[in-house]
Amino acid sequence: MMSLVAAPMAIVDLASTAQLQQQAAAAAAAAAAAARKQAMAADQQAAGDTTTTMGGEQELSCSCLMKGVRHLSDSGITRLPDRYVLPAPDRPGAAIVSSGSSRVKLPVVDLASLRDPSQRAAVLQTLDAACRDYGFFQVVNHGVQRDVTGGMLDVARRFFELPLAERARYMSPDVRATVRYGTSFNQAKDAVLCWRDFLKLVCQPLREVVPSWPQQPADLRDVASRYAAASHGLFMELMEAALEALGIVPSTAGGVLGELAAGSSHMMTVNCYPACPQPELTLGMPAHSDYGLFTFVLQDHVAGLQVMHGGRWLTVDPIPGSFVVNVGDHLEIYSNGVYKSVLHRVGVNSTRPRISVASFHSLPAERVVGPAPELVDEEAGKPRRYMDTDFATFLAYLASADGKDKTFLQSRMLLL
Ligand SMILES: O=C(O)CCC(=O)C(=O)O
């Protein structure tokens, strides 16, 4: 038992240790800030940007903005540049905070239970209800090792810490490039920029594309390819479960699953949302739905993802080590509207950077997707609700005027 004399000594020791730690931390932070400034100056020189520091933050050049938000955040800006300020009706209303009434615990799909024949039916019901109602759920007990998920988040964070000149090697205007580094949502078109930098990696066929992925950090290819393989495995398992829940008979389901096993489309977006000086005025990503069948999101412990439900934006409470999974446009179309591809967006905050990894899984790009014949029956009051679609239709939609006032999914709906 500790004596009464020893206790105050211990407190004094702890207090002084804390002071020393604070001093050491302050010195380390000052050194890191100086190093960052030096690295930024080198970056600016490398990229030929001499206007950045001359006119203050409101006069940031366009080329500087296109260097992304990590670059801006590192420069220590205290006011959001105008190009990031959303019109008042589109603003998130409030910065993402760590707790609050609009936080949501999404339905949870336990994969260990799904794999247990005695519990499978109950889990299928949970999955089915989640896809019909929220279009979103969290997957736990999935069996993907922590070193794979944690390793992916860690290598993602280290990628965005690389000097800009290294990251910029992967900038490309080609949306079909197997590797693409960029900023905002669609930087060529966005009238207002988003507070996000990203690295997009095409993941299919994995062995063929990995050699084109970034060489730095040195373990990125190994870690990200192990993660991509695990994500694809889970996708196949959840697709099989979703088809079963929809009542699509195994022979037909075998057809779609067989097609997916033979070749699918799989793209991974690694997102970086640095701390933002005025998070209430902007978004990390605007409201959108996803194009494919299912999207898997791996996020760190910082909240940011918001889901539209019942006319309100709800912030998803992250469950460490889990995946947030959402129904994409293709699955809404294939299920003839039974499952919902729901709008979601990303809010940012002023203190904590956030990393997420979104994996988009679907059928091959050239495959035409329409409602499953099993789910269309005019006489039973289940008319076909969507036109067939493929990637070319999607690209045509992006280039058309339709994109201004309709989502892609709305543009594929049949008027009944
Ligand atoms: O960062 C997130 O949580 C979501 C990312 C997302 O919606 C996307 O990449 O499409």
From TrEMBL:
Might you report a single GO cellular component term? nucleus
Which top-level group of life is the source organism from? Eukaryota
Positions in coiled-coil regions: none
Location(s), subcellular: Cytoplasm; Nucleus
- Organism in which the protein naturally occurs: Dichanthelium oligosanthes
Coarsely, its chief localization is cytoplasm
Q: Which residues cross the membrane?
A: none
Recorded GO molecular functions are:
dioxygenase activity; metal ion binding
Q: Which Pfam families does the UniProt entry name for this protein?
A: 2OG-FeII_Oxy, DIOX_N
Q: Which InterPro entries match?
A: DIOX_N, IPNS-like_FE2OG_OXY, IPNS-like_sf, Oxoglu/Fe-dep_dioxygenase_dom, Plant_2OG-oxidoreductases
Q: What is this protein identified as? A: Protein DMR6-LIKE OXYGENASE 2
What residue stretches are annotated with the Fe2OG dioxygenase domain?
264-363
According to the UniProt entry, where is the signal peptide?
1-17
Question: PROSITE patterns annotated for this entry?
Answer: FE2OG_OXY
